[in-house]
Amino acid sequence: MSNQTKDIGFGTQIRKSPFFDATLRYGAEAFSVYNHMYLPRDFGDPVENYWNLVNAAILCDVAVERQVEITGPDAARFVQLLTPRNLSQCQVGQCRYVLITSEEGGIINDPVLLKLGDNHFWLSLSDSDVLLWAKGIAVHSGMDVSIREPDVSPLQLQGPRSLEILKALFGDEIGTLRYYWFRETELDGIPLVVSRTGWSGELGYEIYLRDASRGDELWERIIRAGKPFGLCAGHTSTIRRIEGGMLSYHADMDMNTNPFELGLDRLVDLDMEDDFIGKAALRRIKAEGIRRKLVGLVISGPPIEGSNTRFWPLLAGDIEVGTITSAVYSPRLTRNIALALVSVDWTGKDSELLARCASGDHVATVVDVPFIDPQKQLPKSSEQ
To answer: According to DSSP H, which parts of 83-214 are helical?
Structure first.
């Protein structure tokens, strides 16, 4: 173990991904814990990681995105009970970004759903214990379902050259995979699911390993195929995800945040016949109107070092009117940018507030979000 990793304090009580040893070999220097598993957060300079993503491709260990597998005769009905997004048109082979809401309308998780069969689903999780939530709901649902965590660990292959790398691995036909669709396949006998999804705002794919014993083998196979295309080991980019207005659970939302505050109304269907947890509460919240709203900010002052590790207050005069949830310096935009939850009275474009940052007080101006590619043309783009 290198000097950079000696003080991480790895233990047996926190799980390691099938790619853990590979990430150490390829320069992982810092980890956090996400879904009770170590998540590589640092491969050196985060700006270099950002440019690797934007200009070529990066391979990220995101095995922390654990899967909750729901099967059984009532699986489709049960999954609909968990989410306010209408799944009636979701087809086998399709992914959907969904919210899981509490009885009070708060957000418990914002997973990507994969429909593997008419009554076979995966929920690819952000950081909260949905396995336990779903099992608790199932006990009292009266539905015939089986809920478990399968042996599935995803990698993210993201960046403009990710398709070229994928073709080198799987052949040209993989280029027909549409945005937010997936297919079950294999590579050198390694069982996989490949989806055209990711958390980068760039063209990208997720490769779900279905046999943890072959994690190191899969990692090295992808790295070899990607070398001619500039592929680097890396980590999910905070810079790029904030530029793209992509939300992070526990930072930009949690159980005290509802979909309407986040501008995620499209993920809530209050008119569908099927019931879902939180339906009555969300109807009430919509009727009463929201009191705060997620906005983008441009913050004056020197470049933010890294990203915020605390929630920074936003003030109008002497009154606190909001909170900066995610902030970073964008080397492409050459300015500090942020996401914030702000009182609706101060969410008009070009409104100016005072941001109480770690480096001092700075002017924060409300702007449109996403900051880059608001129509998501990059991840939706056809072959490069």
So the answer is: 130-139, 162-170
Give long-range contacts, CB 8 A cutoff, 24+ apart: 29-33. Answer: 29/2, 29/4, 29/5, 30/4
Number of H helices, E strands in the chain: 9, 21
Q: How many CB atoms lie within 10 A of CB 182?
A: 25
pLDDT for the residue numbered 84: 98
pLDDT at 12: 84
Are 59 and 231 within 8 A, CB to CB? yes
Q: Does domain 3-62+152-242 have CATH number 3.50.50.60?
A: no
CATH number of 67-148: 3.30.70.1400
| Residue partners of 235: CB distance under 8 A and separation at least 6 | 28, 40, 41, 42, 43, 49, 58, 60
Asked if 336 and 299 count as a contact pair (C-beta separation under 8 A), the reply is yes
Superfamily of domain 248-367: Aminomethyltransferase beta-barrel domains (2.40.30.110)
Instruction: Return the structure tokens found at 136.
Output: 């608790």
Residues of the chain with CATH 2.40.30.110: 248-367
Q: What is the pLDDT of residues 277-327, one digit of tens each?
A: 999 999 999 999 999 999 999 999 999 999 999 999 999 999 999 999 999
Residue 174: which residues within 8 A CB-CB, separation 6 or more?
163, 166, 167, 194
pLDDT of residue 1: 42
Q: Where in the chain is the domain with CATH 3.30.70.1400?
A: 67-148
pTM: 0.95
- Comma-separated ranges of CATH 3.30.1360.120 domains in the chain: 3-62+152-242
Q: What separation in angstroms does the CA of 375 have from each of 148, 178, 372, 379?
A: 36, 16, 9, 10
**3-class DSSP state of 45:** coil
* Listed residue (136, 133, 145, 137) closest to 107, CA to CA: 133
Q: Which CA distances in Å does 339 have to 213, 244, 253, 311?
A: 39, 10, 11, 11
**Tokens for 66?**
């654990």
Q: What is the pLDDT of residue 383?
A: 45
- What residue ranges of the chain have pLDDT lower than 70? 1-9, 382-384
Q: Is 348 left (phi over 0), alpha (psi -120 to 50) or beta?
A: beta
